């Protein structure tokens, strides 16, 4: 990535990389780690937020400790792409908390969902009672995660992010 092409310098990238690792870092700690005084550091953070590079801050929760033992990747196919079914499908997905992410794809399926459930029985009920009832759905294929090898929402924003 060429930072200058997107209006960022190495300090901006370092700030974002540090915040991706620990979103609770204080402005004082951030400033210290990127060799800035606190006021310029704070201004940079506010600019990164205002310009949309930093969209928000959140805690990363442990799904297993919260009782979600199943993580599934669900391929959803549509019989017909005409009419408002795809739009209604996408709108309805927004209100389903078990769906962690949804991607509209090219290839064999139309959508790929990442779904959590308490256990296999709960996942089966979810597929039957929720997913199959969504507008336009003609096929569902699921793959269950046996083990999470890497889980990260961090973007590669320079050497400081490694």
Automatic annotation (TrEMBL):
One Gene Ontology biological process: regulation of DNA-templated transcription
Residues in the signal sequence: none
CDD domains per UniProt: HTH_ARSR
Top-level taxon in the UniProt lineage: Bacteria
Gene Ontology CC: cytosol
Domain HTH asnC-type: 8-69
Pfam families: AsnC_trans_reg, HTH_24
UniProt xrefs under InterPro entries: ArsR-like_HTH, AsnC-type_HTH_dom, Dimeric_a/b-barrel, Tscrpt_reg_AsnC-like, Tscrpt_reg_AsnC/Lrp_C, WH-like_DNA-bd_sf, WH_DNA-bd_sf
Name assigned to this protein: AsnC family transcriptional regulator
Organism: Chromobacterium alticapitis
